[in-house]
Amino acid sequence: MMVKHDKKFAVDNSCANLSIKYNMLYISVYQLIQREIENHTEWGQKLTNSKNARDLAEEYKKQDEFLEEQYSPVHYESGLVHQLINKAIADRRTD
Questions:
Q1: What are the backbone angles phi and psi of residue 44, rounded to the nearest 5°?
Q2: Separation of alpha carbons 28 and 16, rounded Å
Q3: Mean pLDDT over the full length of the chain
Q4: Which of 31, 43, 79, 90 gets the most CB atoms within 10 Å of its CB?
Q5: What percentage of the chain has pLDDT greater than the value 70?
């Protein structure tokens, strides 16, 4: 199940709780991207090289507590983001 939400709705806690309740995997994609870039991994380098920054609407810039302007999947090449998600899923399956 994939949850896409409007920026004004904080859903990380709700999704994490649902994943625990129903024994599902929860991956926060912006956090995954942020971790890879900040840790200077190979994936982080690939993502950085593919970045095509898009402006957020002014009303969201004031509330950008999740650094979405920097790490939202919309800023990166979608194929790379999908590969990163698949890798994260595969990594969790082997844990």
A1: -60, -40
A2: 9
A3: 81
A4: 43
A5: 75
Digit-coded pLDDT (tens) for 3-30: 555 555 566 677 778 878 888 877 888 8
Q: Is 1 a domain residue?
A: no
- Give the whole-angstrom CA distance, residue 76 versus residue 62: 22
User: How many distinct structural domains can be found in the chain?
Assistant: 1
Q: What is the DSSP secondary-structure string of 14-55? A: HHHHHHHHTT-----HHHHHHHHHHTT-HHHHHHHHH----P
With tokens 């625990």, the residue in question is 20
* Domain interval for residue 55: 27-94
Under a CB-based contact definition with an 8 Å cutoff, are residues 48 and 41 in contact? no
Q: Is the pTM for the entire model greater than 0.85? A: no
In a domain, 57, yes or no: yes
